[in-house]
Design the sequence.
């Protein structure tokens, strides 16, 4: 045990003396949280929509007044007067404007005579997010215009009452579970991957191998140290990220205990995985080259950015064995849903089993000689 | 060959290291070929040879870092293959690479290794202070290792290898990369350590001077084979010719080699470069006089002429057929092709 603690002591002293690892493992996830959290999930503001009015009747005026109301209030779009429908379509194609609304001749008459009144909306569907937002906004306007001023006393349509279990979750909050997982992964990638191979290449391990330390002490010493580093990164990002995203859950003792369990389990899982991948590697370039590949392979199928249900089968299969999936699910359950231990028990079970399993495979592969 | 007498000298004392028919193969390549030798307690034993000769492989087999393919090695009475942990407890090893952590202080590095060797807490501080004193790094105990000079880092490595009071000390090229002043300081330190701690040392080197000054006995290793073994004096005496005459003729001629070989007492002549020859002779003074007379009678000018005693370099040439420094500074493999149209 004394020899194992010597390995841990050396790793931790090195970790605190050289803050690069700590800074780098915190910097990238935090930047991602700030930039992606603010860039995604926001509402469209100030889109340019052309209006081509061939009708000029009272209903067309009513429609254009509702456009002006949107431009003045929620500011989703502002309208630009166009005379030529073909020019408007061309400008949507070239990106000078974002959409065009065509009010056809006889529109007002058709509205009054209830003779299938129609409006045209030209959108650039190469940008799904923009076109989807404008379509939804226009649909809401049209629905509002067709709703009778005097509502029937007895409703004859089916109403869907939506009950939201949790307060509004903005994208920054939604991204936080992935950010915490990413911080631990980067810490393990640098501390357990790159530095481990660098030490090997520099001959530090040769120094260990000539001492009476056993294979078990050496493997577990290095892995415990790697897990502690990942835990420190996880705790730091959980606290900083929660404060940035405005989540007060970290002030609840039970939630804090759940988070701590998840951080410990995820650190062991990530570290075990990295040790298994690196146990027979000698070339310092390998972990650097693997960084991007692993990042893409593990991060995106985790469901941290997009729902797993929307993935094709093969991608869903990756997410089943991906420790990121359980890590992200667990953190979501605690940070966003206050789900308690019941909500994270399977995540904890998988992460602990994954970590111990990978270590058990890696230990016999570790060579006690050069 | 003086192997027998050298071995009888070492046989008087108990053996610290015994290597019997050691073989190391990597696939079809044989890095160490049937090497046998023994090292007596308290002896400084050198493995001398060029890079790639198999010295480091030998030392790594003895220190349990790589397994032997054949033969056996006994270190401090323990078989390295059967009881590697017992071997590790009694040896100190300084590998070629600097293994101390540059981010840790001198004292922290020593403390970590003392713990790795399970040195009891009460002895740890005492041992660290003693080894720091021995390698003259006491005043640097709190300095981060990365701030130390190359010589100081090498001294720290030596201290690191001694922190658990080993019986046998293995050093793989301990002075490689050091400037001459630091190198001499390390030699003095190692000699002092041997005397004060009664250490058995086995070191590898490709520096003739280091082997000559430091080692009680030397084994010359070439292409994985032990080609000669003995004390530096014995090895020098084993080479025919007591002196080396180095002569540089002003003009290069194919006749020089033949004429030099014909001089009285000359045992071998080696052409070094254009007009420059190393002549092994039983009498340096006689050969020098004959050389001067020969040059005067032929109307030739001698650019330089020197007489030296036989060195380990000559021993190496004698046993391997080439110079050690030839191996260290290899000529570039690539030569420019002739210009098109240029005359040969």
Sequence:
């Amino acid at each position: 045990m004394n020899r194992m603690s010597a390995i841990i002591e050396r790793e931790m002293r090195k970790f605190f003396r050289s803050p690069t690892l700590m800074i780098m493992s915190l910097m990238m996830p935090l930047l991602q949280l700030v930039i992606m959290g603010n860039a995604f999930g926001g509402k469209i503001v100030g889109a340019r929509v052309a209006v081509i009015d061939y009708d000029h009747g009272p209903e067309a005026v009513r429609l254009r007044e509702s456009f002006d109301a949107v431009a003045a209030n929620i500011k989703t779009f502002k309208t630009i007067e166009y005379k030529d429908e073909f020019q408007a379509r061309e400008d949507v194609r070239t990106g000078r404007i974002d959409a065009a609304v065509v009010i056809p001749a006889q529109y007002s008459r058709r509205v009054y005579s209830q003779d299938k009144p129609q409006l045209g909306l030209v959108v650039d569907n190469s940008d799904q997010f923009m076109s989807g937002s404008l379509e939804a906004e226009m649909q809401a306007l049209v629905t509002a215009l067709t709703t009778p001023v005097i509502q029937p006393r007895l409703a004859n349509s089916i109403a869907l009452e939506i009950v939201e279990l949790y307060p509004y979750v903005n994208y920054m909050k939604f991204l936080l579970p992935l950010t915490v997982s990413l911080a631990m992964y980067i810490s393990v990638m640098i501390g357990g991957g790159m530095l481990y191979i660098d030490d090997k290449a520099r001959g530090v391990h040769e120094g260990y191998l000539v001492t009476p330390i056993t294979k078990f002490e050496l493997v577990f010493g290095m892995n415990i140290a790697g897990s502690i580093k990942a835990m420190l990164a996880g705790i730091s990002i959980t606290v900083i990220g929660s404060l940035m995203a405005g989540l007060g859950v970290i002030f609840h003792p039970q939630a804090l205990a759940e988070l701590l369990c998840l951080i410990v389990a995820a650190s062991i899982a990530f570290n075990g995985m990295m040790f298994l991948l690196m146990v027979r590697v000698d070339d310092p370039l390998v972990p650097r080259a693997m960084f991007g590949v692993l990042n893409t392979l593990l991060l995106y199928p985790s469901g941290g950015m997009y729902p797993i249900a929307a993935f094709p089968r093969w991608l869903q299969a990756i997410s089943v064995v991906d420790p990121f999936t359980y890590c992200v699910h667990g953190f979501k359950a605690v940070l966003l849903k206050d789900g308690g231990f019941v909500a994270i028990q399977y995540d904890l079970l998988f992460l602990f089993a994954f970590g111990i399993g990978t270590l058990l495979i890696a230990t016999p592969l570790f060579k006690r000689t050069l | 060959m003086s192997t027998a007498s050298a071995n009888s000298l070492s046989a008087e004392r108990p053996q610290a290291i015994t290597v019997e028919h050691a073989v190391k193969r990597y696939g079809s390549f044989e890095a160490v070929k049937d090497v046998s030798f023994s090292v007596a307690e308290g002896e400084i034993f050198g493995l001398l040879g060029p890079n790639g000769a198999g010295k480091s492989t030998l030392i790594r087999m003895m220190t349990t870092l790589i397994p032997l393919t054949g033969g056996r090695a006994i270190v401090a009475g323990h078989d390295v293959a059967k009881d590697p942990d017992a071997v590790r407890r009694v040896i100190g090893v300084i590998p070629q690479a600097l293994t101390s952590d540059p981010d840790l202080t001198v004292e922290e590095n020593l403390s970590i290794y003392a713990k790795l060797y399970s040195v009891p807490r009460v002895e740890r501080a005492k041992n660290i202070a003693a080894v720091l004193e021995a390698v003259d790094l006491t005043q640097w105990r709190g300095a981060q290792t990365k701030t130390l000079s190359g010589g100081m880092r090498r001294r720290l490595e030596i201290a690191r290898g001694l922190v658990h009071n080993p019986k046998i000390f293995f050093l793989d090229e301990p002075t490689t990369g050091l400037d001459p002043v630091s190198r001499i300081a390390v030699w003095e330190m190692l000699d002092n350590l041997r005397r004060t701690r009664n250490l058995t040392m086995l070191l590898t080197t490709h520096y003739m001077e280091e082997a000559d000054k430091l080692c009680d006995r030397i084994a010359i290793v070439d292409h994985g084979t032990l080609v000669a073994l003995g004390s530096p004096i014995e090895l020098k005496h084993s080479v025919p010719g007591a002196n080396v005459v180095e002569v540089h003729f002003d003009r290069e001629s194919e006749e020089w080699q033949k004429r030099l070989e014909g001089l009285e007492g000359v045992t071998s002549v080696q052409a070094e470069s254009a007009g420059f020859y190393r002549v092994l002779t039983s009498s340096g003074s006689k050969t020098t006089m004959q050389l001067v007379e020969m040059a005067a009678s032929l109307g030739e000018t001698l650019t330089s002429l020197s007489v030296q005693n036989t060195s380990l370099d000559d021993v190496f040439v004698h046993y391997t057929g080439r110079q050690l420094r030839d191996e260290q500074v290899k000529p570039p493999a690539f030569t420019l092709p002739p210009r098109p149209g240029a005359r040969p």
User: Anything to note?
Assistant: The first helix of chain A runs from residue 2 to 17. The domain at 47-144 of chain A is CATH 3.40.1710.10 (abc type-2 transporter like fold).
